[in-house]
């Protein structure tokens, strides 16, 4: 009886405190906030009641917006922007000249094709944030995938932050947070589609990076890059094996050793940590596997059995984790069996947030992700949905990766064409990641001398993978062209281009060897995330992909460089690093070094690196430098599957700009897209935007 009373009390407190019904913080580090189905039902009922009560006021507001839009001077009714992340202008030009991209060639011949200048640094979250806001990084606050905590020097995601209450209530084995946790978007600046919404112009925004958590707008939005998985990470895969290599560390995933009992295997699906429990243990779902013959197995989880053949992806499988009485966290994943006998070998994708029953908002309005799931079934919601790390770690092979990447691409296509069908007037934007992910992983196959050829994969088998990628994107653009009207404005853009990534540069190692960085206890190498750094004697350091930070007094917790010394130190580093030679190959590793104060003057400039490194073609920050380690060598071959990149000097990796209208500007920049769209719709361009309109359908006399 006492146990029943405790459980009932816990359930009531969960609802009253908002843990089940509003948001509960689960997981270390990046963390995870979830919303229960009960709360969604409650909110839906309340919204329905409020809609009935306030519909007269709503009609008045909508009529005012329509009237406000009708007063705008414009003749553009619909703008479509298709983002092909990483599409390279040099490769596009080559394939167009070879007659392989007829639809992009048609746009080029009748409208515009130009290189699109990218951001400094040319990193996807940076560039797409500039696209979204029309401002430079010092004004939107995104300089890299990662930022550093100035107190601890530890990394944190640059785009989002989890904030939790400090108070909790202890009941038995549970610790119930009393304050509501929240997920905060760290990108600053207002998206241009929010400005359109003020004039009643509808926008459909699909998977644009750095839109998580979703912001309200006059339309619909499905968040893109940086949406976490159910574990609160940017994508943690699971590998099951009965072999003997389970002790090997897998970057980006976990490996579970399983034991076979004849044709049966008992194991589990690892989920997020349950911070409602005092010991914060991992939630798990039992997984039983029965091998049927030599080419099939049956996977059994509570309430579901999945029959799966070897070398075949399962459909999306729904998973439900129990965090406490009545507290359910729902996700989806896919399985792929690589081997059944003699050893069992199976891959499980990262557990995506279930779009049909999302445990936290991934769209605006909340119901949009549910709507898409109802009409097209389950789909990937993870921001970095393509399994690049699983291929990098050789947990999956090239064929498994490509099948999955194109499956996700087809999901995105269905969303785009649904939006085009539903959006007869207004703005429609959809960003495709496939072009970026495949080029990252397959650039090695279009180079004869890439170090990654050491991987035992026949080069000729994938020599045309990137070419076929561009052909497939062109075919999709052709279908978009058939679905639009002659008065619609169509843009096809990319945030950056692509080049080979053959050699990694560890600038922490260079800083150590040249006396700018110190290690503890006489060590000559340092572990990840600065574990071995002697901060009292360190003046400069690097991590992430963009540049060098000065350990400045009054800014970093253990800063040693004064404001006066900082300028002299930056000048010295620029002089020594510009044109840095790679003695082993005879190449030049660094094309240019940029002092951030000479290029940006926005309010968030201090959050970026003090020096941005413009690597030369073929070079990038090494894998060790990206995670803050100090290696024995400054240079190293990049022998991973991840063989192409764009984290180089921005002059080397511009994006593409295709438009079915003529554009006279020969040097467009990605920051110009936002003011261009506003101008086409006749909306006044805010003075804070850095960019300029590239196209105008308004007559000059009407602009006065």
Structural class label: alpha+beta
What fraction, in percent, of the residue positions are helical? Answer: 25-40%
CATH architect. name of the domain at 502-649: 2-Layer Sandwich
Q: State the separation between the terminal residues, measured CA to CA.
A: 79 Å
CATH topology of the domain at 502-649: Gyrase A, domain 2
Q: What's the Cα radius of gyration?
A: 26 Å
Sheet having the most strands? 8 strands, mixed
CATH class of the domain at 502-649: Alpha Beta
Strand order of the largest sheet: 4-38-27-3-26-11-12-25
Total DSSP helices: 16
Task: Assign an overall shape.
Answer: globular
How confident is the prediction overall: mean pLDDT?
88
Number of strands: 38
Strand content: 15-25%
Q: Unreliable segments (pLDDT under 50, ≥5 consecutive)?
A: 1-45, 698-704
Q: What would you say this structure looks like, in words?
A:
- The structure is a single chain.
- With 704 residues, the chain is of the alpha+beta class.
- It has a domain of 148 residues: Gyrase A, domain 2 (2-Layer Sandwich).
- It is built from 16 helices and 38 strands.
- Strands 4-38-27-3-26-11-12-25 form an eight-stranded mixed sheet. It has a five-stranded antiparallel sheet with strand order 15-16-17-18-19, with no helix packed on it.
- The longest helix has 34 residues.
- The radius of gyration is 26 Å and the shape is globular.
- The N terminus and C terminus are likely disordered.
